[in-house]
Design goal:
By secondary structure, this protein is an alpha/beta fold. It has one domain: Rossmann fold (3-Layer(aba) Sandwich), CATH 3.40.50. The chain is 42% helix and 14% strand. The protein is built from 8 helices and 7 strands; from the N terminus they run βαβαβαβαβαβαααβ. Bound molecules: 2-hydroxyethylsulfonic acid.
């Protein structure tokens, strides 16, 4: 039996990018999936896809926006008792909006990034971690970013949200030091997903340009690392992983051919 077989894995933002890759990779490990998604239609399509590829894998779909703390609470409370002892939480939901100077961001973009990347992560964490403490097990895997290590011009708000993810992860690790619950902060660099399309509000050309001239990481690359991180023995707590593309040194330094 694989190490992750039967483990209950809760993933936010599971319909695309790294979240979707995580759902597929954990399904491949025969884990049980609880997927929290904002878009019902995309969520149902994803469940269908998983059901076809992995008919033996159980998938629970929760529809809701992580930005709504009450909804997060209600959705987790609505889980049947036998699913509440969640083993792995992948706090993946997150996004960037625009590439604007700190002082040139719209109110809407500031709210969207902070509400999703910081408050959303906290709203899910505050309902799931008490369950992990109660059941005396668990692993929280937060999606930070290299943007949370070095700021870059135009990314001030996004970088700040990812720095917040690092510090929330570090604080949690300290708070959980006497428990078996582990905390990992995953900090990917350039990954080719819908990230840039979302950042540039659907502008395909601008989004494509980000990945031109460099072999970017794939969402599967990151999901593979997340799955390995979750597979180590209980004594091994990976606190932080930073993954950059081969021609990338940090969030600011990317060599393009
Ligand atoms: C995304 C990485 O450096 O493009 O989290 O902002 S970066």
């Amino acid at each position: 039996m694989g190490k992750l077989e039967g483990k209950k894995v809760f993933i936010t933002g599971a319909t695309a990018g790294i979240g979707k890759s995580c759902a597929m990779k954990f399904a491949d490990e025969k884990a049980r999936l609880i997927l929290m998604v904002r878009n019902e239609e995309k969520g149902k399509k994803l469940v269908e896809e998983i059901n076809i590829k992995y008919p033996e894998v159980e998938v629970i779909l929760l529809i809701g926006d992580v930005r709504d703390g009450k909804v997060c609470e209600e959705l987790v409370n609505s889980l049947p008792e036998e699913l509440k002892d969640i083993d792995i939480l992948v706090n993946n939901a997150g996004l960037a909006k625009g590439l604007n100077k700190v002082y040139e961001n719209s109110i809407e973009d500031i709210n969207t990034m902070i509400d999703t990347n910081i408050k959303g992560l906290l709203f899910v964490t505050r309902v799931i971690v008490p369950l992990m403490v109660k059941y005396n097990k668990g692993h929280i895997i937060n999606l930070g970013s290299v943007a949370g290590v070095n700021a870059y011009a135009g990314g001030g708000v996004y970088c700040a949200t990812k720095a917040a993810v690092k510090f929330i992860s570090d604080a949690l690790r300290l708070e959980l030091i006497e428990t078996p619950v582990k905390v990992t902060n995953i900090q990917p660099g350039i990954v080719e997903t819908d990230f840039s399309l979302t950042r540039f509000n659907g502008d395909v050309e601008k989004a494509k340009n980000v990945y031109k001239g460099i072999e970017a990481l794939t969402p599967d690359d990151i999901a593979d690392i997340i799955v390995s991180t979750a597979s180590y023995p209980n004594r091994v707590q990976v606190s932080e992983v930073t993954i950059v593309a081969q021609n990338q040194a940090d969030s600011r330094a990317i060599y393009k051919k």
